[in-house]
């Protein structure tokens, strides 16, 4: 990849060491390029380099809160940045300098699951392409008008798999609980029927395995694996957009499973007919069962979610405080959860009670950006208008420069002006992976330094986007 060459740092055989701090500093500089300045200052700046042992990069953080946050949100950028400097991607391990004073209240919650289930899951781990999150259970799922149908359908599917709603198709934008609900189904099924053959995976993984099966000339093994299950759950099926051959393969998988009354559950960021260039025969099959949209949560549901998330961390968030946060953050569940983590972490660190002034301090970043939040739609609208391309073209696989250039600009602007993750930006602009987005943003950033026309275009678009978002 181009960007690897640019660093100009000699890869020394010995790698990073405390005496050899410039490699770590260079890594930090690379991270800074990938994330927003306030994210860098709030989190990454607290890390200290400890040592590099073989392929592991050991860092330390002053407390658990920062470690958890970085593990969850910045592990990828850190590893990618280190890869640019070291020439290979290290495993990043963050140690904590001080043990927490109240371990129960700061570490992530341990679910109250039976040991039997835990053992069962261990045995079956290999069946899951993605490790199930222990907290994504029906018990932890807050039901409101926004997700009532999806929730009821998920329960019905567990009661009567293959017959209640087949397929079950959940769609809605990011952070509204699609993955949580799908994994709840897996947990519940495993609890009921220990021998059930359940396959839960991301659509990306389905695509990758299909490609590698073709390359190895071993399509039979691939087919066997996907056609001999009791239940298949594929997350983010919109990733099939524009992938004709995989769509064709999936069509046959679907038919085999469906005809055998095996349960199929799919999630997507868009309704079936809105997935770019999805074959009609798939669109119609996806609608055979139940298609339901997960909506943004209303105020009462937001309050309930905030309180549930606090409880999972063995803390109580009083009504007034929960209502205050819910009135400020009205986008999605992921943001709500992020707010709870921040507020509780902040209260622990400062050793203070959770009250409104504390919440205002803890969430000052979020509340500011919340008020003037730029969305991916704002970016898309400006680019579509300025270049005269269509949204479907931006989201297509076309590589012609007339399309790929505006697409790269859109990705760059999305990285600069919004705090969507690389994955989210890639997903929005046609189901591309995070490296494509990184590459695009990097390329535009570098080119704009030497191309004044491009620079002017970017400034112009930025102005338009900020104006549109008011
Ligand atoms: P999606 O797959 O739709 O993007 P996720 O399932 O990943 O969304 O949800 C994002 C976060 O919000 C997760 O941490 C999840 O536990 C939480 N969440 C979403 N919906 C609910 C809900 N109804 N109750 C409790 N937590 C929820
Ligand atoms: Mg998801």
* CATH homologous superfamily title of the largest domain: P-loop containing nucleotide triphosphate hydrolases
Q: Major beta sheet, specifics?
A: 5 strands, parallel
What is the straight-line distance between the termini?
38 Å
Order of neighbouring strands in the sheet with most strands: 5-6-7-4-8
Mean pLDDT over the full residue set: 85
Number of strands: 8
Predict the CATH topology of the largest domain: Rossmann fold
Q: By helix and strand content, what is the structural category?
A: alpha/beta
State which percent range the strand residues make up: 5-15%
Query: What is the number of independent domains?
Result: 4
Bound small-molecule species = adenosine-5'-diphosphate, magnesium ion
CATH hierarchy: architecture of the largest domain: 3-Layer(aba) Sandwich
CATH class bucket of the largest domain = Alpha Beta
Helix content: 55-70%
The geometry reads as: globular
Radius of gyration: 23 Å
Task: Write structural notes for this entry.
The chain has 470 residues and is α/β, with parallel strands linked by helices. The protein has four domains: 2-103, 2-Layer Sandwich (GMP Synthetase, Chain A, domain 3), CATH 3.30.300.180; 138-293, P-loop containing nucleotide triphosphate hydrolases (Rossmann fold, 3-Layer(aba) Sandwich), CATH 3.40.50.300; 299-371, Helicase, Ruva Protein, domain 3, CATH 1.10.8.60; 376-469, Chromosomal Replication Initiator Protein Dnaa, Chain: A. Helices cover 56% and strands 9% of the residues. The protein contains 24 helices and eight strands. It has helices at residues 2-6, 22-34, 37-42, 64-73, 75-86, 103-106, 115-124, 148-159, 178-192, 203-216, 219-227, 244-259, 280-286, 299-312, 319-328, 333-350, 356-362, 364-371, 376-387, 391-394, 401-417, 422-428, 434-450, 452-468, and strands spanning 48-53, 56-61, 91-96, 168-171, 198-202, 231-235, 263-268, 290-293. Strands 5-6-7-4-8 form a five-stranded parallel beta sheet, sandwiched between helices. Strands 1-2-3 form a three-stranded mixed beta sheet. Strand 6, helix 12 and strand 7 (263-268) form a beta-alpha-beta unit. Helix 14 (299-312) packs across helix 16, helix 19 (376-387) crosses helix 24 (452-468) and helix 23 (434-450) packs across helix 24. The chain is globular. Residues 1-13 and 100-129 have low confidence and may be disordered. The structure holds adenosine-5'-diphosphate and magnesium ion (MG).
